[in-house]
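Sanity check

After download, print the first record. It should look like this:
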Amino acid sequence: MQNLSQRLGRLYLRLHSTVLSGPQIVAFLPAITLAAYWIGGERALIAAALTVPATMAAAGALSVSDPAGQREEDALTGLPLAQNIAGKVDAITHTRDGGEMTSAALAISIDDLDELVKRFGNSGRDQIVKAAADRLRDFVRGDDMLSVLEPGRFAHFLVTGQRRELEVLLQLAARIQGAFDEAFSINAARVYVSVSVGFCQPNRCPGPSASDLLDAADAALNEAMVHGTSVVRAFSADMPNRRKFAGALIDELSDALSSNAITPWFQPQISADFGEVTGVEALARWDHPERGVLLPQDFLPIIEEVGLSELLDELMLRRALISMRSWNDTTKLVPRVAVNFSVDTLRNAKLLDKVMWELDRFDLPATDLTIEVSEAVLERKHDDIVARNLSRLRALGTAVDLDGFGTGNAGLAAIQRFGISRVKIPRPIIARIDSDHSQKKLVSGILTMAEQLEIDTLAAGVETRDERVQLSQLGCGHLQGTAICGPIASDEVAQWLTAHQAELARSMPRISAGNDGKQIGNLPRDRR
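Expected structure tokens:
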């Protein structure tokens, strides 16, 4: 019996070391004891019942090991799991600061992780996540703790030093994002990624524990990721309420989009030299049944949050082209219409096909369309999908306007890479150009740079006649704003065009005669 017991023990150990390990071997216990009964009868069964469990216990198979959900560390990065270190942060705080919450927390996420999986597979994603963890380790100081929330998502507790002020945390978030400017190498390819950051200061924490702090930082990160990539957000107490508000409006917004309650209004753009119409911009307006006509700032953030940006862009493009078709059939006085595209739309691999289909549908050439993008798009300087889409649209014949130029971080190289046709100088830059010499120099510098790059210019938000005069004299190409005309409904455009052309015709003799270089002052001040 002793010899049989030894043989059964050796059989188990061979299975444990070469086939299975841990609790998995327990599944083979019935098979081992039954085999023992077949081989040696009742005596063998007794031997198996006594020997195998003892051997398993000695080998550790019956010990309680951490299941995947209870591991102390993340298997990929070697970092601790966030839920396991909150108690340690509380212990340090209680010992050092008498229980007062003095730590801050940051939650950090790699942007567009699903896209990385599509491009490089799970193994490529894992390489990036592991390398990202190594870069984040450089920001750990003293008792600080870096941990994993989920794959590609990290938590950083600031326990060491007095680093709780808002400005300090914003600077730290910016440095963390800057650490990802350098490309990763995946399968001999250079891959650029960005990260978004949410953080919570101790005095803003909704609860007394490190777990509360972590939840708040994670909520701020979720808020950041709603608004695009490479975004930073600080936690505020109204974030949960804003999400509830957005949830309550989602059905209403969907109905508004499907019922055409959200429609384009159009704001004319004119030549700064002689005042002829060079285009119109389509601007979204929501004709709300209870609140009247809502401006974009009232509903665009919610549309972005609930993921309806592409649907809105499709609607605005279609309705703008319908109006363009109508104007071409009547006045023929609108050379092109500009439509704003969100980052989500610009990252759609089928964008070119959609635009071509809509143009064909209304029998319009691509030269009748301008795509307007924000500086946030150009700040995604390594986004190959956006660059490819804009390049293909330019090749098709559409123009590309850059909105808000000078207010963000878009560099000249990005302007050229993304094929920008014209830069729009926003109201904050042109305001007081007629009275503030520094503003005038700033605008002059932008216009000179654009001329060197052979890029057209448009001043947006022009509100006074004097601003029109100054911008014309400085050499700006086009003007848009209430000094020319405010946004108007589609069915009002033809009437405005007719009136504008008549006023231009009356002013042309005075323009031709000259007026000491100030002929723009004789142009009509149309509807405000």
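If your output differs, re-run the checksum step. Summary of this record's structure: DSSP finds 18 helices and 16 strands in the chain.
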